[in-house]
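BUG: 3D viewer hangs when loading the predicted structure for this chain

Environment: internal workstation, default settings.
Expected: structure renders.
Actual: progress bar stalls at 90%.

Input used:
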Amino acid sequence: MTNNTEPASGAERHSRGAHARSGRDGGKDEHTSKGRSGKGLHRRKFLGGMAGVGLGAVAAAGATFGLLTDAGRNKASAATDTAALTIPDLLEGTTADGTTTFTLEAKTGTSEVLSGVTSTTAGYNQSFLGPTMKWTKGDTVLLNITNSLSEETTVHFHGAHVPAEMDGGPQNAFAAGASWAPTFTVLDEAKTLWYHPHALGTTAKQATHGLAGMIIVEDDSTASAALPSDYGVDDIPLVFQCLAVDSAGDIKYDQTGYLSSGLSFPVLVNGTNVDDTTLTFGATKTRNRFRALNASPSDIITLQRSDGGKLIQIATDQGYLTEPTSVDTIRLVAGARAEFVMDVTEDVTLQVVITTGWIRGGSGTFDFLTVAAGGTDTPSDLPSSLSTIERYDTSAFTARTITLSNTGATMKINGSAGLTMSSMAMISTTLGAKEIWTITNASQLEHSFHLHDVPYQLVSVNGEDPTGVQLGWYDTFEVVGGGTIQIAMEFTDFADDTYMYMLHCHLLQHEDEGMMASLMVTES
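Structure tokens produced before the viewer hung:
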């Protein structure tokens, strides 16, 4: 069921720690004695969670916020209907002269976000959301993208290591009726990426209305050959959205909209509302791979099994972990991805726990998918090794501090509000540079830190050494109110003295309100 709620407490978020015991699927157990936020930090006080809203605004909106009362209410047993899981179409490319071409059209349409209510939406090649693209490492791809919206847009390839000129940032914006045709060689190894708009000031509006789709990168590694890869059969995309919608179906995306009365916060999976519906997937193979993407504008999702069983996580944002890792839950802030596998020998129900990420949002636990056992095969053991991740020795890395802050509703990085390209802070570095950044959240607001261009390793999370899946590669990670993370990266392959990459909060409203800076990588 939809819910109008106060942000959930930090205690609720960390009530399901991982415990060391063997996972049936053979993954290494991850033991977590502390919440991910780190010791002594409260992820959000109620007023702290009012991103950019002053005390006067809180008082003026008293009637609205009086509705926010049942953050801890469990809705897992509320589903009354079932429906088959919709698998996004796989966009077929055409290959000629060594280049694979994909065609996308950003367009408006209508869809039912609330059951029985028509909403104005947007999508790529369809009315809502977009098809999945498959890229292969080493291939050259060309994307012919047409803007059939009524305003400018871009298409950013979130997590992809591509030239700045092809990254789809604000400098790549193209007008209504125009087209853009980026082309590049896929350098990424196997991982789950996604694509979405990234123009200045309109990202939240366009993405919340449905402009988002998944990208699967494949490679010829031993790990990839040993894992499920038949799209829609045993390799299943899960695109999560928690949106804000009024009773007339109008999708909200900014502070004014989120503070209006009579809102619902539906949870959608692959475009289907799961508030009162548990989706079903009939497995035809025993081992199944799931790719989870949090495409919500701001809310946080946590995935778990309803029976308390383990999930075997195999990948983070930027590809495979070193080994399959048994976890109780998988927590994804806005923009983040993860992959996990399950050996389904009996029916399994998956749950999503929604935690409010912004001034208002969804909350609660939902049975979103029942995977019905149907495979008769006996899969081999999972590979004991998936990849090699050499941890950085950061002793000689160049150090920087990136400060996330706000003045009222204006969001800032290093003291500057990135509302225009000229007003945002700019980080300048050189090709081949190795750097360690301290990302400091000087507010009590939730932030999701995203870096374009290259992946990063976590060096510390709120003063604690990373453990378990935190030792993987990331491009998007949570920075809690008052918290600090340290990340390390190396700038490889691409330099440009005109086009810049971005670094920003991936709470889309914060991004549009100024929490974005530019990154220029030039020749050394």
